[in-house]
């Protein structure tokens, strides 16, 4: 009995301490509890993770252990402030599953409603046609708010992305797609090219990884290229890049992975692209006379607006062809990043003689 009485006294003592802390004068309340909503709002904004729509940063699914959901579970006041901040709810990753979808969809919809019409950045994870239909039904009421989109496609069959026709305000998009194509003569699945062809003309920044585009693929995806100003993509052969530039007259920045490990059997006519300012090329090629060359592309281009050029991975380089490209383009080139095996001291002197203000970085 003595043990029980002792435990009871301890519990009563703890209860009294809790009551005292609750009834403290306002002047003695924790400073955090006295912060005005405006200050709390600024703190809450800094609790969010990095903006997910960037290469190499995977979207995180909503979790009660991270902001903004975590902020709604601390106390009633914090919940009221967090729920009343539309900016906290403008980024969302949606993973479609076959289990408890109605319950999960309800949670996603509650999140999207809290954005109150603000522009949305969404991450979408799915791998089947029926998943695409579920997403379309979920996102339809908010389609005009979606300005940024990150799509991750997995599975043996790439689903049709009919929902893209709904995103009339889309400006920025990253697609990570697994399509196993090892033959330059093969085309991307029709479901992929049809989906890309449906993208709205508001799109100006586009990144696609995981699949190589060939000459015919670019035509099949039209008219998506016409409005783009920034593009990051993987391409078969120089003729694919050459064709792309003709379909994308407004490009100012192009980053490409170029597969040169196949024969280039087309003779490319000279093409001038007047707006391209930044060109980053990473190429892959084994040695052999029957392979394509990066200079097959440069010999067919004039880029009078080019300010920045970087070339990585080229196993063979022809300085005379590059000098001819610079002379022909008459571009205001400011920066050249090039592999060490691709440039001699004499080459450097020739480049600087042609463009004295050129910054050359050897990597």
Question: How do you describe this structure in short?
Answer:
The protein is of the alpha/beta class. Helices cover 32% and strands 19% of the residues.
Query: Tally the helices: what do you get?
Result: 11
Q: Largest sheet, described in full?
A: 11 strands, parallel
Cα-atom radius of gyration: 28 Å
Beta-strand level of the residues, as a percent range? 15-25%
Question: What's the end-to-end separation, in Å?
Answer: 80 Å
**From the helix content, strand content and strand pairing, which structural class follows?**
alpha/beta
Query: Going across the major beta sheet, what is the strand order?
Result: 1-2-3-4-5-6-7-9-11-12-13
The portion of residues assigned to helices is: 25-40%
What string, H for helix and E for strand, traces the elements in order?
HHHEHEHEEHEHEHEEEHEEHEHE
Mean pLDDT: 84
Uncertain ranges: none
What is the tally of beta strands?
A: 13
Q: Rough shape?
A: elongated
Describe this structure in words.
This protein has helices spanning 2-22, 37-47, 76-83, 101-114, 129-139, 190-197, 215-221, 237-247, 294-298, 319-329, 345-354; strands at 91-95, 120-126, 146-153, 172-177, 205-209, 230-236, 253-259, 271-272, 278-284, 301-302, 308-312, 335-338, 359-362. With 363 residues, the protein is of the alpha/beta class. The strands form two sheets. Strands 1-2-3-4-5-6-7-9-11-12-13 form an eleven-stranded parallel sheet. A two-stranded parallel ribbon has the order 8-10. Helix 10 (319-329) links the parallel strand 11 (308-312) and strand 12. Helix 6 (190-197) packs across helix 7 (215-221), helix 7 runs parallel beside helix 8 (237-247) and helix 10 (319-329) packs parallel to helix 11 (345-354). The longest helix is centred in the N-terminal third of the chain and has 21 residues, at 2-22.
């Amino acid at each position: 009995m003595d043990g029980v009485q002792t435990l009871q006294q301890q519990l009563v003592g703890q209860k009294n301490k809790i009551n005292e802390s609750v009834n403290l004068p306002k002047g003695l309340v924790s400073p955090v509890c006295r912060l005005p909503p405006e200050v709390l709002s600024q703190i809450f904004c800094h609790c969010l993770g990095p903006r997910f729509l960037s290469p190499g940063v995977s979207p995180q699914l909503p979790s009660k252990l991270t902001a903004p959901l975590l902020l709604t579970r601390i106390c009633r006041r914090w919940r009221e402030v967090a729920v009343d901040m539309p900016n906290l709810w403008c980024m969302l990753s949606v993973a479609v599953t076959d289990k408890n979808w109605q319950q999960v969809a309800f949670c996603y919809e509650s999140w999207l409603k809290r954005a109150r019409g603000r522009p949305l950045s969404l991450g979408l994870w799915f791998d089947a046609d029926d998943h695409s239909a579920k997403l379309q039904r979920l996102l339809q009421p908010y389609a005009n708010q979606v300005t940024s989109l990150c799509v991750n496609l997995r599975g043996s069959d790439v689903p049709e992305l009919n929902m893209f026709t709904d995103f009339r305000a889309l400006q920025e998009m990253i697609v990570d797609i697994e399509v196993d194509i090892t033959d330059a003569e093969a085309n991307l699945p029709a479901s992929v090219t049809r989906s890309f062809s449906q993208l709205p003309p508001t799109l100006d920044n586009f990144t696609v990884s995981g699949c190589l585009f060939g000459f015919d693929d670019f035509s099949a995806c039209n008219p998506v290229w016409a409005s783009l100003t920034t593009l990051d993509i993987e391409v078969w052969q120089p003729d694919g890049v050459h064709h792309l530039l003709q379909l994308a007259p407004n490009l100012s920045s192009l980053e490409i992975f170029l597969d040169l490990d196949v024969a280039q059997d087309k003779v490319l006519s000279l093409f001038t692209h007047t707006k391209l300012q930044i060109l980053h090329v990473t190429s892959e090629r084994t040695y052999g006379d029957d392979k394509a060359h990066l200079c097959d592309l440069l010999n067919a281009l004039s880029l009078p607006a080019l300010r920045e050029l970087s070339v990585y991975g080229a196993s063979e380089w022809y300085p005379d062809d590059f000098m001819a490209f610079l002379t022909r383009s008459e571009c205001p080139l400011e920066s050249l990043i090039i592999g060490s095996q691709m440039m001699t001291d004499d080459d450097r002197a020739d480049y600087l003689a042609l463009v004295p203000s050129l910054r050359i970085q050897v990597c």
